[in-house]
Amino acid sequence: MEVRSAALMRRTWLRQTLSVLIFAALLFAPAGTLRFWQAWVFGIVFLGACVLLGIYFLKHDPALIERRMQAGPMAEQEPAQKIIIGLVMAGFVLQLFLPGLDHRWHWSSVPLWLVLVGDGAVAASFVVFFYVMKQNSYAASTVRVEPGQPVVSTGLYGIVRHPMYAGALLLMVGIPLALGSYWSLLVLVPMLPLLAWRLLDEERVLRRDLPGYADYCRQVRYRLVPGVW
Length: 229
Description:
Blueprint: H1 2-28, H2 37-60, H3 62-69, H4 79-105, H5 112-135, H6 163-178, H7 188-209, H8 213-219
Helix pairs in contact: 1-2, 1-4, 2-3, 2-5, 4-7, 5-6, 6-7
């Protein structure tokens, strides 16, 4: 068990290190400069939150970390999800890449207070992610049902059926503002339908494979935003 835990820790931190390098390249290369303070603040908030979540769940729920490391189009079992995740990943890359161009060519002029609101939204999204993962150890990065998986209906799951996606929505809105780019908000136009498509297809799979999920859907009315949908 200790050998397995050590191997998981090495894999996790290797992935985190590679993510930091890719993350920095996507933010600063299109800007053509390191003098992009919005990117520095956003990077500290985003990567700091990722590290804190990694540390916590490596200690308290390593099985969840293993589940979430199986990510990306090739890890998905459902054909539709392979397409959806490929497009979502492309959208996320654009959300990080376009603000650098915006900064270089001065397309947007986002006030300080709104940049800070964006950073606050990013931080809040990770608070949501933390509680979702704490309440549901089966919150994997892929759409699947594992043997013995229960239906979670308490906590955030008692408010909306897909609190992880609610957090993702908050993150997608926060990133362009935190990086000082109004133009990058346009990426939300295709991203929102993709999020809805993933959510609806996931519900199809859960209704099919997870006993009790249909009853849960009747119990919790809203999918993503309370009082809206």
